[in-house]
Amino acid sequence: EAGVAQSPRYKIIEKRQSVAFWCNPISGHATLYWYQQILGQGPKLLIQFQNNGVVDDSQLPKDRFSAERLKGVDSTLKIQPAKLEDSAVYLCASSSNTGQQETQYFGPGTRLLVL
Amino acid sequence: AQSVTQLGSHVSVSEGALVLLRCNYSSSVPPYLFWYVQYPNQGLQLLLKYTSAATLVKGINGFEAEFKKSETSFHLTKPSAHMSDAAEYFCAVSDSGQAGTALIFGKGTTLSVSS
């Protein structure tokens, strides 16, 4: 079974530029998460999708971050414009169902450096 | 609000020694608790999870954790460390306070294993 795929793996941009990340979850997984992991910290949720609907985006900085999952499968996360403090690893995770006991499977992440 | 505290940002052990990584949680409801491992430049991999079925939970790679409600703890142990166990370990609790089912992570503990 293929795991969660993410691209690109690394990205370096200047501040105020825009950037987009892509995630393809495990086949059949209805729930998709985007987490931000700043160096030295644990991951923090940005947004959760159930199929193509948003379940929780309370911690997404909506003035600069946006995300979509149009067909309920793959997803894109965009930052526009980027700030220095957006330098982090962006992790995508998926699970088969929405339930607190469900295992979330993580992709390898996209490492973003904003200069 | 739920939270997780990992005591000790860095733990060093010798090969063959006992591994003990500490995690305390704060939750007003019975929690679902998880331990994940992260190897360099990789995503998070589930080691084990507590879903109230049994207080002693066995995971992959010889790791286990015991849920102690009286101590609000979920410490991770392994009887004998291997060099391959060197990685970062995250304790997480499933967030019942938000609309979704995001994980709330601790700050992580880096495990070093020396020969």
Tell me the major beta sheet of chain A.
Answer: 7 strands, mixed
Estimated share of beta-strand residues of chain A: over 45%
User: How far is the first residue's CA from the last residue's CA of chain B?
Assistant: 41 Å
Radius of gyration over C-alpha positions of chain B, nearest whole angstrom? 14 Å
Class of secondary structure makeup of chain B: mainly beta
The coarse silhouette of chain B is: globular
- Please tell me the overall pLDDT of chain B: 92
Please report the total strand number of chain B as a whole number. Answer: 11
How far is it from the N-terminal to the C-terminal residue of chain A, by CA? 37 Å
The interface involving the most residues is between: A-B, 30 and 27 residues
Note the overall shape of chain A. globular
Helix content of chain A: under 10%
Find the structural class of chain A using helix and strand composition: mainly beta
Rg of chain A, nearest Å: 13 Å
Given the structure, what is the number of helices of chain A? 0
Poorly predicted tracts of residues of chain A = none
Detail the topology: elements first, then pairings:
The complex is a heterodimer of chains A (115) and B (115).
Chain A: E1 5-7, E2 10-13, E3 19-24, E4 31-37, E5 44-50, E6 53-56, E7 65-68, E8 75-79, E9 88-95, E10 105-106, E11 110-114
Parallel strand pairs in A: 2-11
Antiparallel strand pairs in A: 1-3, 3-8, 4-5, 4-9, 5-6, 7-8, 9-10, 9-11
Chain B: E1 3-7, E2 10-14, E3 19-26, E4 33-38, E5 44-50, E6 56-58, E7 64-68, E8 73-78, E9 87-94, E10 103-105, E11 109-114
Parallel strand pairs in B: 2-11
Antiparallel strand pairs in B: 1-3, 3-8, 4-5, 4-9, 6-7, 7-8, 9-10, 9-11
